[in-house]
Design goal:
The protein has helices at 55-79, 85-93, 96-121, 127-130, 140-156, 167-170, 175-185, 188-209, 211-225, 234-254, 257-278, and strands at residues 38-39, 42-43. It is an all-alpha fold and 290 residues long. It folds into two domains: 51-130, no CATH class; 133-178 and 185-290, no CATH class. Strand 1 and strand 2 (42-43) form a beta hairpin.
Length: 290
């Protein structure tokens, strides 16, 4: 039996390549339709905003601080005995330690609101991490900076025109008051001031305007905040502004609010310890005016 070429079956012809088809990635997705945040290895989440709060949130913190101070002040007024509101206010004015207690309570309320703002409203469950607290492994260099800064400020004070008496000096005339001031100066005072100025305000300014502006503006606000207690003396504001500049540089260079807190605490603690030693444990306050 013989076969002719016409009797053989036709061989299958290969299909032409699909030039219009989009390439398919290894994961089964059409790479031409990949969104911008998808790579061949999978999804790449967008980096979280750092800090997660904004300038409006910082302004809300300022409003909350004012409200907390007023509320705590009214609370102190309510517990002071007196037949009229005027009589209670006069009585409260004669008890400056109650104003210090009111400020402590207001700072605690502000700390609570800071926590709610970060963890609840801005969705950052790790409060201290979001604020770049970052406790340093070696605290002694920062305590040393605070000590040196206080000594430097006391030296510069000899060349600047300070008023003879300030509202802060009045707080140092009573034993209870000076104890409260000293405790506040090394605990809630530096903690809340560093959290606000270097924790909340600085990163917002630095992100928008740069590191230098962030450091300078926070230092200026820091100085103006303390103006009233020093009788609005420009020399006092200048020194505290310089202190704020150092604290800002520490925050920027170390990426640590805790480092600035240590410097701030050592700065305040140095003068508190000096007053404690000079007055024999706050028993002879008259020595502070000699």
């Amino acid at each position: 039996m013989s076969f002719s070429p016409d009797d053989l079956p036709e061989s299958p012809r290969p299909a032409p390549p699909a030039t219009d088809a989009a390439p398919v990635s290894a994961g089964g997705l059409i790479s031409g339709d990949l969104p911008c945040d998808v790579q061949a290895g999978g999804l790449v989440p967008a980096a979280p905003l750092d800090p997660p709060w904004n300038g409006l949130d910082v302004f809300r913190l300022m409003i909350m601080a004012f409200v907390a101070m007023v509320a705590c002040g009214l609370g102190m007024l309510a517990v002071v005995p007196g037949a009229t509101a005027k009589a209670r206010f006069l009585r409260l004015s004669a008890l400056p330690e109650l104003f210090i207690v009111a400020q402590m309570l207001a700072y605690l309320l502000l700390l609570g609101y800071m926590y709610i703002l970060v963890t609840k409203e801005r969705g950052s469950p790790r409060f201290w991490k979001a604020l770049h607290w970052n406790w340093p492994a070696n605290i002694w260099p920062f305590l040393g900076v605070g000590l040196a800064m206080q000594i430097g400020c006391l030296f510069l004070a000899h060349f600047l025109p300070f008023p003879k008496e300030t509202p802060f000096d009045d707080l140092l005339q009573r034993h209870t008051t000076i104890v409260l001031v000293s405790v506040f100066a090394v605990t809630l005072g530096p903690l809340l001031e560093e959290l606000f100025f270097r924790g909340f305000l600085y990163p917002v300014l630095a992100r928008r305007f740069g590191m230098g502006t962030g450091i300078s503006v926070t230092a200026l606000g820091f100085g103006l905040m303390h103006a009233a207690q020093y009788g609005y003396s420009w020399a006092s504001v200048l020194l505290i502004f310089l202190v704020g500049m150092v604290l800002g540089v520490v925050r920027a260079r170390t990426d640590s609010v805790a480092a600035g807190f240590l410097v701030h605490t050592a700065y305040n603690g140095t003068i508190a310890a000096a007053m404690f030693a000079a007055t024999s444990g706050f028993r002879h306050l008259e020595r502070l005016t000699q």
